Amino acid sequence: MVAVKKDKISGDALGTGRRKSSVARVRVRPGQGKVTVNRRPLEEYFPNEQDREQLLSPLVATGKATEVDVLIRVHGGGSTGQSGACKMGIARALVSLDTELFPVLREGSYLTRDSRMKERKKYGLRGARRGTQFSKR
Fold it and tell me: Is the pLDDT of residue 3 over 90?
């Protein structure tokens, strides 16, 4: 099913999210709704409004935006991949915290891994599919 762990010491819920080449490790704990990404505030790490909305969407869908604090460690990829990884990690951590949220998160497809990856470069080509420029002479 979903690879989610629950930390018995502090009562935090842990979740791992992946998207493109990004990996996010998410820790959700009861709090006031503070979101920290790589020890920086959410607005500072993700200046793009679209990335912030994508990251917060599982919290808004479940109504937990003001009830939990979220700590995220994310690396790899770009801002879109990282925000998608964070979204999946938050959803998995919320399910670990409260299993009754599973149907809401499943219906919103927050728990589904987006399997699209970059296509590999092939030999004899300049990229994954682009060939070399034709030269008559």
Answer: no
